[in-house]
Amino acid sequence: QVQLVESGGGLVQAGGSLRLSCAASGRTRRSYTMGWFRQAPGKEREFVAAISWSSTNTYYADFAKGRFTISRDNAKNTVYLQMNRLKPEDTANYFCNTIPPQTPYWGLGTQVTVSS
């Protein structure tokens, strides 16, 4: 089993930045591609970004391109999401998981609220 703990969320004004972290523990020896997802109130969870084990390949949802950057530090078992130029519509609970996501690995997420 892998345990994932997200952190770094908060309240920020539109145009601001946040850096989210996802710390993995447990059986982390496998070379997972990791991703970030988000869920806004009343909406389904959606894909945000993903990064391969070696960081060679990254993938972004259209809304994230040019504003968000995913990265990872395998020595620290941590995945990051740098979010710049945040918009009110980015308000959501942000989660990390493997790609493809595995149900047991969903954590509590970290709340991001962007005020206008």
Short précis:
By secondary structure, the chain is an all-beta fold.
List descriptors:
single chain, 116 residues, mainly beta, six-stranded mixed β-sheet, four-stranded antiparallel β-sheet, 51% strand
Could you describe the 3D structure shown?
The protein is mostly beta strands and 116 residues long. 0% of the residues lie in helices and 51% in strands. It has strands at 2-7, 10-13, 18-26, 34-39, 46-51, 58-60, 68-73, 78-83, 92-98, 110-115. A six-stranded mixed β-sheet has the order 2-10-9-4-5-6, with no helix packed on it. The chain has a four-stranded antiparallel β-sheet with strand order 1-3-8-7, with no helix packed on it. The protein starts with a strand and ends with a strand. The model has no long low-confidence stretch (mean pLDDT 95).
Distance between the termini: 40 Å
Residues in helices, as a percent range = under 10%
How many DSSP-defined strands? 10
**Judging from the principal axes of the Cα atoms, what is the shape?**
globular
Radius of gyration: 13 Å
Catalogue the unreliable spans: none
What is the topology?
Layout: E1 2-7, E2 10-13, E3 18-26, E4 34-39, E5 46-51, E6 58-60, E7 68-73, E8 78-83, E9 92-98, E10 110-115
Parallel strand pairs: 2-10
Antiparallel strand pairs: 1-3, 3-8, 4-5, 4-9, 5-6, 7-8, 9-10
